[in-house]
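Predict the 3D structure for this chain.
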Amino acid sequence: MMANEAWMEMWPNVIYLASNPRTSDHSPLILQSTDERNVGNSIFRFDNFLLKALDFLSRVEDVWRHHIHGIVFYYKKTKLLKLVFRNLRKAKGDLARNVEQAAGFLANIQQLLKDNVNCDLLLELEKCCRLVYSKAVAQEQRMHKQRAKLKWLKEGDVCSRTFFLENQSLQSSGKIDLQFLLPWVKHTISNVEAAALSQNISDQEVKEAMFDIAEDKSTRLDGLSSGFFKAAWSMVGAKVTKAVKEFYSTGCLLKQVNESVLALIPKFEIPREVADYRPIACCNVIYKVIMRIMVTRMKGVLQKLIDSIQNAFVPGRSISGNILSAQELLLEYNQMRLPPRCALKINLKKAYDTVEWGFVTANLKLISSWSSARARARAL
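Done. Predicted structure below.
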């Protein structure tokens, strides 16, 4: 069986089986896309990051100097060393958790430094926390590098695509579930809030969403504006409400409702390339009603899903506030008494330029058990 890299990324846990032919002259081939085998305790593997332990050599010497007769000395001594290294490895704790804790301590100190820039004690603590964090990261990276078994991997090139693919293939027998990432997801909603968001849509919600849409918006593929639906609501309201409710109950959306007109608005008087245009999606009115209901319901939990520094989503703030804050921070950035640091100017793309629905739905799954929201997101 042959498979390319893209296929292996999509199906990392696939199992290929060739069964016995029995009475046939061909062997049946079986592809199992999920591996449900229980993974037991792994055999002992020495982790190279233990070489950096201060008492590494002394521990080895304590075991190796014992006199054992016969050829079995090697086996018995290595067996004793396994116990020593297991205990040493256990003393190191969970490397990922060590990195998380070190990052947390460093973040707390840096947060305090924002209000006390001239505090020598905090500056010294930050320096110590930086060293602890760097050491924890180095230990974790060395372990992953060793398990990837790439002798040609350069130092520091620990986040390359090849490194990721090799680790992915080696870990296919013990797949990491999305719940593994849950401790790093800080913005979540409770099951009660998710249930409230999933409540049945009322007729009043549909009507309010429709009447909140401006009447002078450009018409879409169906040619109907919100003004038409408002004026004829006594006749069309029941059908429109039924269509919206059906989407919220089934998660399925008609292709005709999901069709949009993409209008390109020039940013300059003489546009020369595609990037010089601002794309505007002209959606159908029913689609807008669906989205407005979702947005209205999300407002109640929005403060739990975003960070306070995301000014574009915080009422009363402007997206330019972060720009002004960055300028103030950079005014005294090159002072000699501060620790060495750098600033990166990154050109961030719009979300719709690189959106990947698999990533969106995976994040929704981590945020809450709101399964209906994932189905609706895929449909929209």
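Confidence is low (pLDDT under 50) at residues 70-74, 149-159.
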